[in-house]
Amino acid sequence: MQYRRFAKLDWKASALGFGCMRFPTLDGRQISANIDEPVAVQMLHHAIDNGVNYVDTAYPYHDGRSEIVVGNALQGGYREKVRLATKLPVWLVNEPDDFDKLLNEQLKKLKTNHIDFYLLHSLNQSRWRNIVLKHNLLAKAAAALADGRIRHLGFSMHDDYACFEEIVDGSDLWSFCQIQYNYMDIENQAGTRGLKLAASKGLAVVVMEPLLGGRLADPPKDIRAIMERFPVRRSPADWALQWLWDQPEVSVVLSGMCAMAQVKENLKSADTSRVQGLSEAEQKLIVEVREKYSARTVIPCTKCSYCMPCPNGVNIPGNFEYFNYAHLFDDAPGARFKYQAFLTEEQRAGSCIECGTCECLCPQKIPIMEWMPKVSALLA
Q1: What is the pLDDT of residue 159?
Q2: Residue 37 and residue 136 in one domain
C-alpha cells in the first residue's frame, strides 16, 4: 500500500480508502438495508489487513445500516488500525440541538467514543446558508471538537465551484473536504479548480466517485478500444484511479466496493500508485478518452448559465447535464437516479412552460423548449 500526506496533519492516509456506501446485499439492491454482513466484514477486514487505513461511511448509507455494520466490523482491534469518517445528515437538522442528537446516535452505532473525520454531508448553497449557517452548526462542531467527540471537521458537497469556494472560505474549522472528482469531472462541481483551491488552503482532499458510480470501469466499446490499443495495458478502472493518484493534491481516493474481487483489484492498483507517475503519453490517452466521451454529448450545453435564472425555476443546465450523462455512458437508469435525486420537482424539465426567455439568452442557440420534453420523457 502507498500512503499520502493528509494535508497539514501529522498522518498519512492510504491511497485507497474504503467507501461503505455499496456493501454487498442479500436482496441484490445496491443500497438496501439488507447488507450481507459476514461478506461485508470480510471485505473490510481484508482491505485493512492489506494497508487501508481510511474508512468512510455516513448516516443514510444502506438506509442507516452501514454505520452499524462498520461499527461491528471495527471491533476486535480493527478500530485502532484506521481513521474513521462519517457524516452529519445536514438535511435532518431542524434546530441546533439536532447536531448533538445525531452525532451521539452515530457514535453509538459505530461503537466508538470519537469520529476521526466528521463531515457535514452533501452541502449545496441552500443547505450551507439555510441550515449550517442559520442553525450555527459550526459552533456546535467546534464544541464537539473541543470535547473530543470528533477530531477533525470537513464537508462533502454537490454543487458548483462558486458554492465550493464559499464553503471553503466560510470557516477556519475545516481540515479536509470531500469532492466528486474523476477524469470526466474536471469542470463539474468543484472540479480541478476546487481540488487546487482546497489544497492551497491547506485542506486534505478526499475524492469520491472516482469511477463515476462504476461508469468509468465499464466504458462503451469505442472508448475501451482506445485503451486496449495503448502499449501500457491497464483496466479501465485502473486508468481512472491512476489518473487521480498522479495528482499530489489528492489525499485519498474512496472506492465503494461491493465484492471481494473489487477489493483485491483496487488494492493492487493502490500498491502501484504514484504521484506524478503517469507519462506524457499516458496523460494524452486520458485526454483522448475524455474527448471521445464528450463527442457522445447530445445537447451542446457548456453550462455557462446565461439562460439562468429560469422564471419558472427550471435548472436548465442541470437537466441537460443528466440527459447528456445518459448518452455519454449509455446509462439512462443512472442518469434518471441523479435527475430525481439532485433536482427538485420545480427544477426538472417537466416544469418548463415554454416561455422562451432562455432561448434568447443562450450563446449556443440551443432550442431549449424543444429539448425539455425529451429530457422529461427520458428521465422523469
Answers
A1: 85
A2: yes
The pTM of the full predicted model, rounded to 2 decimals, is 0.85
| Residue 53 domain flag | yes
The one-character DSSP state at 310 is P
pLDDT: is 239 or 29 the higher one? Answer: 239
**What b/e sequence results for 236-265 when a residue is b if at least 16 CB atoms lie within 10 Å of its CB, and e otherwise?**
bbbbbbbbbbbbebbbbbbbbbbeeebbeb
Judge if 349 and 227 occupy the same domain.
Answer: no
Using CA atoms, how far apart are residues 87 and 60, in angstroms rounded to an integer? 9
Could you tell me the CA-to-CA distances from 192 to 115, 176, 181 in Å, in that order? 28, 16, 8
Of 225 and 214, the structure prediction assigns the larger pLDDT to 225
Pairing of strands 174-180, 252-256: unpaired
Q: Which residues of 143-161 are buried (b: 16+ CB within 10 A; e: fewer)?
A: ebbeeebbbbbbbbbbbbb
Q: Give 15: exposed, middle or buried? Use CB within 10 Å, 0-12, 13-18, 19+.
A: buried
pLDDT at 29 over 90: no
Domain check: are 202 and 249 in the same one?
Answer: yes
Residue 58 and residue 118 share a domain: yes
Looking up residue 280, the CATH number of its domain turns out to be: 3.20.20.100
**Which cell goes with 153?**
471537521
Count of domains for the chain: 2
Domain presence at residue 296: no
- Asked whether residue 301 is domain-assigned, the answer is no
For 202, other C-beta atoms within 10 Å of its C-beta total 12
Q: Which structural domain, as residue segments, surrounds residue 363? A: 316-379
Tell me what percent of the chain is helix, strand and coil, each rounded to the nearest 5. 45, 15, 40
